[in-house]
Amino acid sequence: MGKKKIMFFAYLLLSTIFISFSFAGITKESPLSIGQTVSSSNGVYELGFFSPNNSQNQYVGIWFKGIIPRVVVWVANRENPVTDSTANLAISSNGSLLLINGKHGVAWSSGEALASNGSRAELSDTGNLIVIDNFSGRTLWQSFDHLGDTMLPFSTLKYNLATGEKQVLTSWKSYTDPSLGNFVVQITPQVPTQALTMRDSRPYWRSGPWAKTRFTGVPLMDDSFTNPLSLQQDANGSGSLTYLNRNFKLPRIVITSKGSLEISRHSGTDWVLNFVAPAHSCDYYGVCGPFGLCVMSVPPQCKCFKGFIPKYIEKWKRGNWTDGCVRRTKLHCQENSTEKDANIFHPVANIKPPDFYEFASAVDAEGCYKSCLHNCSCLAFSYIHGIGCLMWNQDFMDTVQFSAGGEILSIRLARSELGKA
Protein backbone atom coordinates (compact mmCIF):
# COMPACT_ATOMS: atom_id res chain seq x y z
CA MET A 1 0.00 0.00 0.00
CA GLY A 2 2.87 2.37 0.88
CA LYS A 3 4.51 1.62 -2.47
CA LYS A 4 1.29 2.52 -4.33
CA LYS A 5 1.06 5.81 -2.42
CA ILE A 6 4.65 6.68 -3.34
CA MET A 7 3.94 5.93 -7.02
CA PHE A 8 0.75 8.02 -6.87
CA PHE A 9 2.51 11.02 -5.36
CA ALA A 10 5.38 10.64 -7.88
CA TYR A 11 2.83 10.64 -10.69
CA LEU A 12 1.08 13.65 -9.18
CA LEU A 13 4.39 15.52 -8.89
CA LEU A 14 5.36 14.78 -12.50
CA SER A 15 1.89 15.81 -13.69
CA THR A 16 2.16 19.09 -11.78
CA ILE A 17 5.59 19.81 -13.32
CA PHE A 18 4.29 19.02 -16.81
CA ILE A 19 1.23 21.22 -16.38
CA SER A 20 3.42 24.03 -15.07
CA PHE A 21 5.75 24.01 -18.03
CA SER A 22 3.68 22.87 -21.04
CA PHE A 23 0.28 24.33 -22.00
CA ALA A 24 -2.20 23.12 -24.57
CA GLY A 25 -2.90 26.75 -25.46
CA ILE A 26 -3.16 30.31 -24.21
CA THR A 27 -6.40 31.65 -22.74
CA LYS A 28 -7.35 34.80 -20.89
CA GLU A 29 -7.10 32.86 -17.64
CA SER A 30 -3.84 31.09 -18.58
CA PRO A 31 -1.16 33.40 -20.06
CA LEU A 32 2.22 31.99 -21.06
CA SER A 33 5.12 32.93 -18.78
CA ILE A 34 8.88 32.60 -19.14
CA GLY A 35 9.80 28.94 -18.69
CA GLN A 36 6.45 27.66 -19.98
CA THR A 37 5.78 26.37 -23.49
CA VAL A 38 2.91 25.48 -25.80
CA SER A 39 3.39 22.43 -28.05
CA SER A 40 1.65 21.39 -31.25
CA SER A 41 -0.42 18.22 -30.87
CA ASN A 42 1.99 16.27 -33.09
CA GLY A 43 4.95 17.24 -30.92
CA VAL A 44 6.86 18.86 -33.81
CA TYR A 45 6.68 22.54 -32.85
CA GLU A 46 6.98 24.45 -29.59
CA LEU A 47 6.12 28.02 -28.58
CA GLY A 48 7.75 29.82 -25.70
CA PHE A 49 10.30 32.35 -24.57
CA PHE A 50 13.91 32.04 -25.67
CA SER A 51 17.09 34.04 -25.17
CA PRO A 52 19.65 34.05 -28.03
CA ASN A 53 23.23 33.56 -26.89
CA ASN A 54 22.03 33.44 -23.24
CA SER A 55 21.56 37.22 -23.19
CA GLN A 56 19.15 39.11 -20.94
CA ASN A 57 16.82 39.66 -23.90
CA GLN A 58 13.77 37.41 -24.06
CA TYR A 59 11.74 36.76 -27.21
CA VAL A 60 8.55 34.84 -27.89
CA GLY A 61 9.22 32.35 -30.65
CA ILE A 62 8.31 29.06 -32.30
CA TRP A 63 10.95 26.37 -32.80
CA PHE A 64 11.30 22.69 -33.72
CA LYS A 65 10.70 20.74 -30.54
CA GLY A 66 13.51 18.45 -29.43
CA ILE A 67 16.00 19.58 -32.09
CA ILE A 68 19.42 20.54 -30.69
CA PRO A 69 20.74 23.11 -31.26
CA ARG A 70 17.42 24.95 -31.21
CA VAL A 71 16.18 26.21 -34.58
CA VAL A 72 13.77 29.12 -34.19
CA VAL A 73 11.36 29.53 -37.13
CA TRP A 74 9.25 32.50 -36.03
CA VAL A 75 9.66 35.40 -33.58
CA ALA A 76 6.89 37.70 -32.35
CA ASN A 77 8.76 40.61 -30.77
CA ARG A 78 11.76 40.80 -33.10
CA GLU A 79 12.35 44.51 -32.51
CA ASN A 80 11.28 44.66 -28.86
CA PRO A 81 12.89 42.07 -26.58
CA VAL A 82 11.63 41.88 -23.00
CA THR A 83 13.94 41.82 -19.99
CA ASP A 84 11.52 41.46 -17.06
CA SER A 85 11.39 37.96 -15.55
CA THR A 86 7.65 38.38 -14.99
CA ALA A 87 6.93 38.94 -18.69
CA ASN A 88 4.13 36.85 -20.20
CA LEU A 89 2.19 36.32 -23.40
CA ALA A 90 -1.49 36.95 -22.69
CA ILE A 91 -4.67 37.15 -24.73
CA SER A 92 -7.17 39.97 -24.31
CA SER A 93 -10.95 39.65 -24.18
CA ASN A 94 -11.21 40.79 -27.80
CA GLY A 95 -8.68 38.24 -29.09
CA SER A 96 -5.44 40.22 -29.26
CA LEU A 97 -2.19 38.55 -28.26
CA LEU A 98 -0.26 40.83 -25.89
CA LEU A 99 3.33 40.44 -24.77
CA ILE A 100 3.40 42.08 -21.34
CA ASN A 101 6.86 43.18 -20.23
CA GLY A 102 6.20 43.04 -16.50
CA LYS A 103 5.57 46.56 -15.21
CA HIS A 104 6.85 48.10 -18.45
CA GLY A 105 3.66 47.70 -20.45
CA VAL A 106 2.98 46.00 -23.80
CA ALA A 107 6.12 45.13 -25.78
CA TRP A 108 4.30 43.50 -28.71
CA SER A 109 0.74 42.96 -29.90
CA SER A 110 -0.84 40.92 -32.66
CA GLY A 111 -3.15 43.85 -33.38
CA GLU A 112 -6.87 44.39 -32.93
CA ALA A 113 -9.19 41.42 -33.24
CA LEU A 114 -12.96 40.95 -32.98
CA ALA A 115 -13.65 38.00 -30.72
CA SER A 116 -17.34 37.59 -30.02
CA ASN A 117 -17.17 35.62 -26.78
CA GLY A 118 -13.56 35.16 -25.77
CA SER A 119 -10.71 33.48 -27.62
CA ARG A 120 -7.75 31.17 -27.27
CA ALA A 121 -4.36 30.72 -28.95
CA GLU A 122 -3.13 27.34 -30.15
CA LEU A 123 -0.06 26.06 -31.98
CA SER A 124 -1.09 23.98 -35.00
CA ASP A 125 0.66 20.89 -36.33
CA THR A 126 2.11 23.01 -39.15
CA GLY A 127 3.81 25.45 -36.76
CA ASN A 128 1.15 28.14 -37.20
CA LEU A 129 0.21 30.09 -34.06
CA ILE A 130 -3.54 30.66 -34.36
CA VAL A 131 -5.93 32.83 -32.35
CA ILE A 132 -9.41 31.26 -32.45
CA ASP A 133 -12.78 32.75 -31.53
CA ASN A 134 -14.35 30.56 -28.84
CA PHE A 135 -17.90 31.12 -30.12
CA SER A 136 -17.60 30.85 -33.91
CA GLY A 137 -14.35 28.88 -34.18
CA ARG A 138 -13.04 31.24 -36.83
CA THR A 139 -9.40 32.27 -37.02
CA LEU A 140 -8.85 35.84 -35.82
CA TRP A 141 -5.08 35.98 -36.38
CA GLN A 142 -2.30 33.63 -37.44
CA SER A 143 1.49 33.78 -37.48
CA PHE A 144 1.57 32.48 -41.08
CA ASP A 145 0.42 35.96 -42.12
CA HIS A 146 3.61 37.33 -40.55
CA LEU A 147 6.27 34.92 -41.79
CA GLY A 148 9.43 36.37 -40.29
CA ASP A 149 12.56 34.71 -41.73
CA THR A 150 11.16 31.22 -42.38
CA MET A 151 8.53 29.45 -44.46
CA LEU A 152 7.21 26.16 -43.12
CA PRO A 153 5.02 23.56 -44.89
CA PHE A 154 1.58 24.99 -45.70
CA SER A 155 2.74 28.62 -45.31
CA THR A 156 2.40 31.15 -48.12
CA LEU A 157 4.33 34.14 -49.43
CA LYS A 158 1.99 36.57 -51.18
CA TYR A 159 1.21 40.05 -52.47
CA ASN A 160 -1.94 41.97 -53.35
CA LEU A 161 -1.59 45.02 -55.58
CA ALA A 162 -5.14 46.17 -54.88
CA THR A 163 -4.64 46.42 -51.11
CA GLY A 164 -0.89 46.98 -51.06
CA GLU A 165 -0.48 43.92 -48.82
CA LYS A 166 2.85 42.17 -49.25
CA GLN A 167 4.38 39.31 -47.28
CA VAL A 168 8.14 38.92 -47.11
CA LEU A 169 10.77 36.82 -45.41
CA THR A 170 13.18 39.07 -43.52
CA SER A 171 16.56 37.87 -42.28
CA TRP A 172 17.76 38.15 -38.72
CA LYS A 173 20.24 40.95 -38.10
CA SER A 174 22.80 38.35 -36.98
CA TYR A 175 22.90 34.74 -35.86
CA THR A 176 22.06 35.79 -32.29
CA ASP A 177 19.92 38.87 -32.99
CA PRO A 178 16.42 38.23 -34.42
CA SER A 179 15.72 41.90 -35.15
CA LEU A 180 15.13 42.81 -38.80
CA GLY A 181 18.21 42.24 -40.95
CA ASN A 182 19.32 43.56 -44.33
CA PHE A 183 17.84 40.82 -46.54
CA VAL A 184 14.24 40.41 -47.68
CA VAL A 185 12.70 37.68 -49.87
CA GLN A 186 9.51 38.40 -51.79
CA ILE A 187 7.63 37.42 -54.92
CA THR A 188 7.26 40.17 -57.49
CA PRO A 189 4.05 41.49 -59.10
CA GLN A 190 5.42 40.78 -62.58
CA VAL A 191 3.60 38.30 -64.83
CA PRO A 192 4.84 35.66 -64.47
CA THR A 193 6.16 36.34 -61.00
CA GLN A 194 9.63 35.51 -59.70
CA ALA A 195 11.29 35.22 -56.30
CA LEU A 196 13.61 38.08 -55.42
CA THR A 197 16.05 38.60 -52.58
CA MET A 198 16.72 42.25 -51.79
CA ARG A 199 19.68 43.57 -49.84
CA ASP A 200 18.43 46.80 -48.30
CA SER A 201 16.73 48.35 -51.35
CA ARG A 202 18.84 46.67 -54.06
CA PRO A 203 18.24 43.33 -55.83
CA TYR A 204 20.61 40.64 -54.55
CA TRP A 205 19.42 37.36 -56.14
CA ARG A 206 16.66 36.57 -58.62
CA SER A 207 15.04 33.22 -59.40
CA GLY A 208 13.95 34.03 -62.93
CA PRO A 209 10.25 33.87 -63.99
CA TRP A 210 8.09 30.99 -62.79
CA ALA A 211 7.16 28.39 -65.43
CA LYS A 212 4.34 26.34 -63.85
CA THR A 213 6.59 23.90 -61.94
CA ARG A 214 9.99 25.59 -61.89
CA PHE A 215 11.91 28.82 -61.71
CA THR A 216 13.68 29.41 -65.03
CA GLY A 217 16.75 30.81 -63.30
CA VAL A 218 17.30 27.51 -61.45
CA PRO A 219 17.87 25.15 -64.40
CA LEU A 220 18.56 21.99 -62.42
CA MET A 221 15.53 22.39 -60.17
CA ASP A 222 14.35 18.84 -59.43
CA ASP A 223 11.38 17.25 -57.71
CA SER A 224 13.06 17.30 -54.29
CA PHE A 225 12.16 20.97 -53.96
CA THR A 226 9.90 21.85 -56.86
CA ASN A 227 6.96 19.63 -55.99
CA PRO A 228 6.35 21.40 -52.66
CA LEU A 229 6.10 24.80 -54.37
CA SER A 230 2.81 26.05 -55.81
CA LEU A 231 2.56 29.50 -57.35
CA GLN A 232 -0.68 31.22 -58.28
CA GLN A 233 -1.43 34.59 -59.91
CA ASP A 234 -4.77 36.09 -60.87
CA ALA A 235 -6.06 38.96 -62.98
CA ASN A 236 -6.89 41.03 -59.89
CA GLY A 237 -3.26 41.70 -59.08
CA SER A 238 -2.72 39.01 -56.44
CA GLY A 239 -0.10 36.33 -56.28
CA SER A 240 0.95 33.64 -53.81
CA LEU A 241 3.79 31.15 -53.46
CA THR A 242 2.79 28.26 -51.19
CA TYR A 243 5.18 25.75 -49.66
CA LEU A 244 3.46 22.34 -49.36
CA ASN A 245 6.13 19.85 -48.38
CA ARG A 246 4.67 16.58 -47.11
CA ASN A 247 7.62 14.43 -48.15
CA PHE A 248 10.27 15.36 -45.60
CA LYS A 249 10.30 15.61 -41.84
CA LEU A 250 10.89 19.15 -40.57
CA PRO A 251 11.35 21.02 -43.86
CA ARG A 252 11.84 24.79 -44.01
CA ILE A 253 12.76 27.69 -46.28
CA VAL A 254 14.85 30.38 -44.56
CA ILE A 255 16.69 33.60 -45.44
CA THR A 256 19.85 33.81 -43.34
CA SER A 257 21.51 36.93 -41.93
CA LYS A 258 24.16 36.51 -44.67
CA GLY A 259 21.55 36.63 -47.45
CA SER A 260 21.40 32.91 -48.30
CA LEU A 261 18.00 31.57 -49.29
CA GLU A 262 18.05 27.95 -48.12
CA ILE A 263 15.70 24.98 -48.43
CA SER A 264 16.58 22.23 -45.97
CA ARG A 265 15.14 19.27 -44.10
CA HIS A 266 16.04 17.42 -40.94
CA SER A 267 17.24 13.88 -41.49
CA GLY A 268 16.65 12.83 -37.90
CA THR A 269 20.20 13.57 -36.86
CA ASP A 270 21.19 16.69 -38.81
CA TRP A 271 20.00 19.33 -41.28
CA VAL A 272 20.36 18.44 -44.98
CA LEU A 273 20.61 21.36 -47.41
CA ASN A 274 18.61 20.81 -50.61
CA PHE A 275 19.01 24.25 -52.18
CA VAL A 276 20.90 27.48 -51.54
CA ALA A 277 21.00 30.77 -53.46
CA PRO A 278 23.16 32.55 -54.29
CA ALA A 279 25.59 29.65 -54.67
CA HIS A 280 27.73 30.88 -57.59
CA SER A 281 29.28 34.24 -58.44
CA CYS A 282 26.90 34.50 -61.42
CA ASP A 283 23.95 34.25 -59.03
CA TYR A 284 24.52 37.74 -57.66
CA TYR A 285 22.16 40.17 -59.34
CA GLY A 286 23.54 42.12 -62.32
CA VAL A 287 27.17 41.16 -61.75
CA CYS A 288 27.97 41.73 -65.45
CA GLY A 289 25.94 44.94 -65.85
CA PRO A 290 23.43 45.86 -68.60
CA PHE A 291 23.69 43.65 -71.71
CA GLY A 292 26.40 41.65 -69.95
CA LEU A 293 26.25 37.87 -69.84
CA CYS A 294 27.64 35.92 -66.86
CA VAL A 295 28.93 32.57 -68.10
CA MET A 296 28.96 29.77 -65.51
CA SER A 297 32.31 28.43 -66.64
CA VAL A 298 35.36 27.58 -64.54
CA PRO A 299 36.33 30.18 -63.64
CA PRO A 300 33.13 32.18 -64.28
CA GLN A 301 33.44 35.12 -66.64
CA CYS A 302 31.51 38.09 -67.96
CA LYS A 303 31.15 38.63 -71.67
CA CYS A 304 29.05 40.81 -73.94
CA PHE A 305 26.28 39.45 -76.11
CA LYS A 306 27.04 39.13 -79.80
CA GLY A 307 26.74 42.60 -81.35
CA PHE A 308 27.73 44.33 -78.09
CA ILE A 309 31.04 45.58 -76.70
CA PRO A 310 32.15 46.67 -73.20
CA LYS A 311 30.96 50.17 -72.33
CA TYR A 312 34.34 50.98 -70.76
CA ILE A 313 36.94 48.65 -72.21
CA GLU A 314 39.78 49.39 -69.75
CA LYS A 315 37.55 48.88 -66.70
CA TRP A 316 36.21 45.69 -68.28
CA LYS A 317 39.74 44.35 -68.78
CA ARG A 318 40.46 44.98 -65.09
CA GLY A 319 37.46 42.84 -64.13
CA ASN A 320 35.13 45.72 -63.29
CA TRP A 321 32.06 44.64 -65.24
CA THR A 322 29.26 46.57 -63.52
CA ASP A 323 28.90 49.13 -66.35
CA GLY A 324 28.09 46.31 -68.74
CA CYS A 325 28.00 46.47 -72.51
CA VAL A 326 26.61 48.66 -75.31
CA ARG A 327 25.39 47.91 -78.80
CA ARG A 328 28.14 48.03 -81.44
CA THR A 329 25.92 48.75 -84.45
CA LYS A 330 22.86 50.96 -84.17
CA LEU A 331 19.57 49.34 -85.10
CA HIS A 332 17.68 50.71 -88.11
CA CYS A 333 14.34 49.16 -87.44
CA GLN A 334 11.15 49.93 -89.30
CA GLU A 335 7.90 48.08 -88.85
CA ASN A 336 7.72 47.27 -92.57
CA SER A 337 11.46 46.76 -93.13
CA THR A 338 12.49 45.10 -96.39
CA GLU A 339 14.48 41.89 -96.16
CA LYS A 340 17.64 43.80 -97.19
CA ASP A 341 17.67 46.19 -94.26
CA ALA A 342 15.65 44.16 -91.74
CA ASN A 343 17.13 43.34 -88.35
CA ILE A 344 17.93 39.75 -87.49
CA PHE A 345 17.42 37.72 -84.33
CA HIS A 346 20.38 35.86 -82.88
CA PRO A 347 19.48 32.91 -80.59
CA VAL A 348 21.53 32.33 -77.43
CA ALA A 349 21.01 29.01 -75.60
CA ASN A 350 21.10 27.95 -71.93
CA ILE A 351 20.00 31.34 -70.66
CA LYS A 352 18.50 32.55 -67.40
CA PRO A 353 15.98 35.05 -68.80
CA PRO A 354 16.93 38.68 -68.06
CA ASP A 355 14.92 40.82 -65.68
CA PHE A 356 12.29 43.39 -66.83
CA TYR A 357 10.45 41.02 -69.14
CA GLU A 358 6.94 41.55 -70.49
CA PHE A 359 4.41 38.78 -70.99
CA ALA A 360 2.62 38.53 -74.35
CA SER A 361 -0.63 36.66 -73.79
CA ALA A 362 -2.22 34.22 -76.26
CA VAL A 363 0.79 34.11 -78.59
CA ASP A 364 2.38 30.90 -79.87
CA ALA A 365 6.08 30.49 -80.73
CA GLU A 366 5.70 31.84 -84.26
CA GLY A 367 3.52 34.68 -83.05
CA CYS A 368 6.12 35.51 -80.39
CA TYR A 369 8.78 35.94 -83.08
CA LYS A 370 6.51 38.04 -85.32
CA SER A 371 5.30 40.24 -82.46
CA CYS A 372 8.85 41.13 -81.55
CA LEU A 373 9.97 41.51 -85.17
CA HIS A 374 7.27 44.07 -85.96
CA ASN A 375 7.78 46.03 -82.74
CA CYS A 376 10.92 48.12 -83.04
CA SER A 377 11.11 48.64 -79.28
CA CYS A 378 11.34 44.87 -78.75
CA LEU A 379 15.00 43.98 -78.19
CA ALA A 380 14.61 40.24 -77.58
CA PHE A 381 12.07 37.46 -77.14
CA SER A 382 11.90 33.99 -75.63
CA TYR A 383 9.18 31.39 -75.94
CA ILE A 384 9.31 29.32 -72.76
CA HIS A 385 7.48 26.07 -72.05
CA GLY A 386 5.20 26.65 -69.09
CA ILE A 387 5.04 30.42 -69.67
CA GLY A 388 4.63 31.31 -73.31
CA CYS A 389 6.03 34.45 -74.90
CA LEU A 390 8.26 36.89 -73.03
CA MET A 391 9.65 40.05 -74.64
CA TRP A 392 12.20 42.65 -73.56
CA ASN A 393 11.95 46.37 -74.32
CA GLN A 394 14.84 47.62 -72.18
CA ASP A 395 18.37 46.72 -71.11
CA PHE A 396 19.02 43.04 -70.42
CA MET A 397 19.90 42.81 -66.73
CA ASP A 398 21.06 39.84 -64.69
CA THR A 399 21.44 37.43 -67.59
CA VAL A 400 23.26 34.15 -66.98
CA GLN A 401 24.39 31.40 -69.35
CA PHE A 402 24.35 27.91 -67.81
CA SER A 403 26.42 24.92 -68.88
CA ALA A 404 23.15 22.99 -69.25
CA GLY A 405 19.45 23.76 -69.07
CA GLY A 406 18.07 27.26 -69.35
CA GLU A 407 16.09 28.91 -72.13
CA ILE A 408 16.75 30.28 -75.63
CA LEU A 409 16.90 34.07 -75.81
CA SER A 410 16.66 35.58 -79.32
CA ILE A 411 18.18 39.06 -79.41
CA ARG A 412 17.65 41.71 -82.10
CA LEU A 413 20.78 42.69 -84.04
CA ALA A 414 21.63 44.80 -87.07
CA ARG A 415 22.00 42.49 -90.06
CA SER A 416 25.60 43.66 -90.53
CA GLU A 417 26.48 41.95 -87.23
CA LEU A 418 25.68 38.52 -88.59
CA GLY A 419 29.17 37.70 -89.82
CA LYS A 420 31.09 39.44 -87.03
CA ALA A 421 32.69 37.71 -84.06
From TrEMBL:
<keyword id="KW-0732">Signal</keyword>
<dbReference type="InterPro" id="IPR003609">
    <property type="entry name" value="Pan_app"/>
</dbReference>
<keyword id="KW-0808">Transferase</keyword>
<dbReference type="Pfam" id="PF00954">
    <property type="entry name" value="S_locus_glycop"/>
</dbReference>
<feature type="signal peptide">
    <location>
        <begin position="1"/>
        <end position="24"/>
    </location>
</feature>
<keyword id="KW-1015">Disulfide bond</keyword>
<keyword id="KW-0325">Glycoprotein</keyword>
<keyword id="KW-0430">Lectin</keyword>
<keyword id="KW-0418">Kinase</keyword>
<keyword id="KW-1133">Transmembrane helix</keyword>
<dbReference type="GO" id="GO:0005524">
    <property type="term" value="F:ATP binding"/>
</dbReference>
<dbReference type="GO" id="GO:0004674">
    <property type="term" value="F:protein serine/threonine kinase activity"/>
</dbReference>
<dbReference type="InterPro" id="IPR001480">
    <property type="entry name" value="Bulb-type_lectin_dom"/>
</dbReference>
<dbReference type="GO" id="GO:0030246">
    <property type="term" value="F:carbohydrate binding"/>
</dbReference>
<dbReference type="GO" id="GO:0048544">
    <property type="term" value="P:recognition of pollen"/>
</dbReference>
<keyword id="KW-0472">Membrane</keyword>
<keyword id="KW-0245">EGF-like domain</keyword>
<feature type="domain" description="Apple">
    <location>
        <begin position="333"/>
        <end position="415"/>
    </location>
</feature>
<dbReference type="GO" id="GO:0005886">
    <property type="term" value="C:plasma membrane"/>
</dbReference>
<dbReference type="InterPro" id="IPR000858">
    <property type="entry name" value="S_locus_glycoprot_dom"/>
</dbReference>
<comment type="function">
    <text>Involved in sporophytic self-incompatibility system (the inability of flowering plants to achieve self-fertilization).</text>
</comment>
<keyword id="KW-0547">Nucleotide-binding</keyword>
<dbReference type="GO" id="GO:0031625">
    <property type="term" value="F:ubiquitin protein ligase binding"/>
</dbReference>
<keyword id="KW-0812">Transmembrane</keyword>
<dbReference type="InterPro" id="IPR035446">
    <property type="entry name" value="SLSG/EP1"/>
</dbReference>
<keyword id="KW-1003">Cell membrane</keyword>
<dbReference type="Pfam" id="PF01453">
    <property type="entry name" value="B_lectin"/>
</dbReference>
<dbReference type="Pfam" id="PF08276">
    <property type="entry name" value="PAN_2"/>
</dbReference>
<protein>
    <recommendedName>
        <fullName>G-type lectin S-receptor-like serine/threonine-protein kinase</fullName>
    </recommendedName>
</protein>
<feature type="domain" description="Bulb-type lectin">
    <location>
        <begin position="23"/>
        <end position="144"/>
    </location>
</feature>
<keyword id="KW-0723">Serine/threonine-protein kinase</keyword>
<dbReference type="InterPro" id="IPR036426">
    <property type="entry name" value="Bulb-type_lectin_dom_sf"/>
</dbReference>
<keyword id="KW-0067">ATP-binding</keyword>
